[in-house]
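BUG: 3D viewer hangs when loading the predicted structure for this chain

Environment: internal workstation, default settings.
Expected: structure renders.
Actual: progress bar stalls at 90%.

Input used:
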Amino acid sequence: MTALILGFFAAAWFGWAQAEPPTSWIPWLTAGMLLSISVAVAGGVLAWLRRSGPSVMHDEEANRRYGIIVGIEFAVAAVGAVLLGRTGLSAYSAPWICLVVGLHFWALAPVLGDPALKLLCILFVAIALAAWLIGWRGDIAASAVTGLGAGLALLIFALRGLAGAFPTRTAGHTTRRFDRNNQKVESRR
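Structure tokens produced before the viewer hung:
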């Protein structure tokens, strides 16, 4: 599911970057979007094939906390985007959304049991700040910088999720598995 969700949103960010990018970026943004869609499709197929497998979302409390965090994220992102639009700063909507999404990753890390989401948060905050500064200088549109950075970060994490869907074996034949609470369990064969 990680590859499906992050791959989908990576494609969306690469698409947003194409609103006002430097011309030389367009082929790279298109390639990023196509690769992201491919990763999302692969993640979707794997999720469907393993639909009865472990998921943290089977826990009612985690599912409730997830819903609350995402609800707050959408509300804060929408209010900020409206305020930016009304003050003539709509060009900075992409960095604002990126910042809010980044902070939501920090809040979701313990809920989903994935501490790496905190790194994704830090990347998104840095991307949002860089896009704001670059956009303010007028060199490149803030949406292009934000979309490229967020798209790349999400694509990397989507690929990480896709790679994590396959059990790993070491010399001792250790296989990574998860119990019903999505906690890592090591077993030897």
